[in-house]
Amino acid sequence: MASFAGDYESFLAGEMSGNNWQPEGRRTLIDQRREGPEGEQFLGLAFPSSASSTCCSDAAIGRALGIVLDTSRNGLFGFDSAFSGAGGAQFAVRVRSIAQRVHLDPGLLATNLLAEVQRRAVWMSGAPLQSHMVGVDYWHEERVRIRRAIPAAAGIREKVVRDASGRPRRFVNELGKDTGPIYQFASGEDGMLALACAVAYRDARLRRSLPTGAYDRLPPAVRFAATRLAFNAGLRRGLRMVAQAAAGHDPLVRRGSTGPSHPIRTASLRAGQAIHLSCAVFHNTLPCP
User: Fold this and answer.
1) Computed over its alpha carbons, how large is the radius of gyration of the chain?
2) What gap in Å lies between CA 162 and CA 159, rounded to an integer?
3) pLDDT digit string (tens) for 240-255?
4) How far is CA 68 from the centre of its chain?
5) How confident is the model at residue 24 (pLDDT cuts 50, 70, 90)?
6) Residue ranges of domains in the chain
7) Residue 182 backbone phi and psi in degrees, to 5
8) Angle of helix 220-233 relative to helix 188-208, nearest 10 degrees?
9) Smallest Cα–Cα separation from 93: which of 31, 9, 26?
10) Interaxial angle between packed helices 220-233 and 106-116, expressed in degrees from 0 to 180 and rounded to the nearest 10
């Protein structure tokens, strides 16, 4: 496994003893026609469990999902550098803490964070961040539903960004679509929590779409890919992926080009990166894809 694991373990040991620690692509709006009744919440979510006693090796992840074992953005180790050194250890602690608050696997959260903004300094910043800068362009439209479903969202410090006349500033994305008012999050931690809640909301919707227990029986690679797909390319695509998997089909695209024109392949690759980080950084045990 990668060398940053030692830094993280040392950092955690220091934290626990009280030593010197101070606290891609196209975005789509959630399909409102598939929302549940007003006020419905998705509570009591649990971390996905695994029957595996050891984690899948990096070589096996690479073979299974067609991912090169290098540090390029789409390589299996593409996001490892964010966890290097003392700064990386602090980042890992923050990711784990927020992942626990929203009931996500920390490797999955880390991959979504770094796929949106690869510089960990942004997520660790004490300075304000704007919604479109951290991957939640549609925060204005989604925030009410997310707050109903994910209790941790109530802790996000946010405000609408206004111009000199007091009118809300709006963000127009690369497709020329007005995604609504821009929000300012008080810090990198608040921005991280906002993205985590947005991802967790999709994960909750995917779980709810299947019979009780069926979602958690899907392979982690499928759950991780579907959640990333739902966040990055639209909830309907994520729902279709988990439905295919529940019916016994393999919905992952294990080879081929990546990018906005190939969202399922890209999500499948990100799932492999998430499994790697979950094992190498956060010491979870997950089966091979």
Assistant:
1) 18
2) 9
3) 999 999 999 999 999 9
4) 21
5) low
6) 4-14+50-280
7) -85, 135
8) 110
9) 9
10) 30
